[in-house]
Design brief:
Blueprint (H helix, E strand, L loop, with lengths): L2 H19 L6 H27 L5 E5 L6 E7 L3 H14 L3 E7 L2 H9 L7 E4 L2 H9 L19 E2 L3 E14 L13 H10 L1 H4 L3 E4 L5 H13 L2 H11 L3 E3 L2 H10 L4 E6 L7 H6 E4 L5 E9 L7 H11 L2 H9 L9 H5 L3 E3 L5 H4 L3 H15 L3
Parallel strand pairs: 2-3, 2-4, 7-8, 7-9, 11-12
Antiparallel strand pairs: 1-3, 4-11, 5-6, 6-9, 6-10, 6-11
């Protein structure tokens, strides 16, 4: 609504109020017209408020393909554009008749967009697999085309509405200068605890991790950590005493490492770790040997999709040999391959099963976050 619309609304309501008080005299027809205009103005104001309240926060957006394409799909994702663009460009090369509008938001915002806002997007891809599973379990996802689920492991799909498209570990990133003076490389959570306790002055204010209150992926990692090992809460308390910085995104933690603000980042998505020489000179990637939580990036087609058919075409390409090759080689996202776990037994995949939903219970989440906050506020 323009400023003039706000002014008109105030004037209408003011005149109506004066008429009700008897301070102005209006004919019956004028009163009726004023009442209709007041109702219309109120509806417009309520509409503006409703739109503002329901809008989800978009971090980035880019359109791929022919700008004059008569067919297009909207893909809402937690994966950064620079990571996923090779896959989208491969799809465009295979299907130049379909343009792709790629929208990036945080995992919690992606969930809110579908659960609360009923956003009319055609494909949703998220790293917060528990939130994705809740959407599918609550009937917010359509049945996927029959061929898409063929050959997918049972633990990498949920019924016929949710499918994993990639997997990736949550890793520890250590700045090389953090180990100056011959400090030992941490290989497990116990090693990290010992390193931080023995050198608090070096690491105080220079540790980063996800904020589970604002990041769906961060909450997933933290709850899985707590279930898989007794060291998580001890590590959280040590990190809290050293004024750990909390982030929404893996990319922000990596940039802070490269700039020198951070010396250590915990539970970062491995795919965001850059491959260039400058990065490798500054940062070391560690998959904790005690256990490394490995999530599944999952995809669904929401009920409100405007073009679910072409959304299915996109997902079919994503899971095809050509699409999966780009996922692995260009985007750097590990494929769904059970053999990986035999080669690396420390990897612990988070499976798509009902146990994921338990941590989303309102009281369970509230208690967990209260305990987390208490750990982060250590004196």
């Amino acid at each position: 609504m323009r400023h003039t619309d706000h002014a008109t609304g105030r004037q209408v309501m003011s005149n109506l109020h004066k008429a009700q008080l008897g301070t102005v005299r209006l004919s019956a027809n004028a009163c009726q017209r004023l009442l209709r205009l007041a109702a219309l103005t109120s509806a417009m104001l309520l509409g503006i408020v409703s739109q503002t309240a329901s809008a989800f926060d978009i971090e980035a957006e880019r359109r791929f393909g022919d700008p004059n394409a008569t067919r297009s799909i909207d893909v809402l994702s937690t994966t950064d554009i620079n990571v996923f663009s090779p896959v989208i460009e491969g799809f465009i090369a295979a299907r130049p008749d379909i343009a792709v509008n790629y929208i990036v938001a945080s995992s919690q915002e992606v969930f809110n967009a579908i659960e609360t806002d009923r956003a009319a997007v055609d494909v949703v891809i998220s790293s917060a697999m528990d939130l994705q599973m809740k959407l599918a379990n609550d009937g917010r996802a359509r049945a996927l085309p029959a061929g898409i689920l063929e050959g997918r492991p049972a633990w990498a799909r949920w019924r016929d509405t949710l499918v994993a498209v990639a997997q990736e570990p949550a890793v520890l990133l250590v700045a090389r200068k953090a180990l100056d003076g011959g400090l030992p490389m941490p290989r497990s959570r116990r090693d990290v605890i010992a390193l931080l306790r023995d050198h608090p002055d070096r690491f105080k204010g220079r540790i980063g991790t996800y904020d589970p209150k604002v990041s769906g992926a961060g909450y997933l990692f933290a709850t899985q950590d707590a279930q898989l090992g007794e060291t998580f809460w001890r590590l959280a308390e040590v990190m809290g005493r050293l004024d750990t910085r909390l982030y929404c995104c893996s990319s922000d933690m990596i940039e802070a490492l490269l700039s020198g603000e951070l010396l250590l980042a915990y539970n970062v998505l491995g795919s965001y770790s850059r491959k260039d020489d400058l990065y490798r000179e500054k940062v070391i990637l560690v998959e904790p040997e005690d256990f490394t939580v490995t999530l599944l990036r999952t995809a669904l087609i929401p009920q409100e999709a405007k073009n679910p058919g072409d959304g299915g075409v996109f997902l079919a390409y994503l899971l095809s040999p050509a699409g999966q090759s780009l996922v692995r080689e260009a985007a750097g996202l590990p494929l769904i391959d059970p053999r990986v776990y035999a080669e690396k037994p420390h990897l612990r995949p988070i499976r798509l099963d009902p146990g994921l939903l338990a941590q989303l219970d309102t009281m369970t989440r509230k208690r967990f976050l209260e305990e987390w906050q208490a750990a982060m506020e250590q004196p």
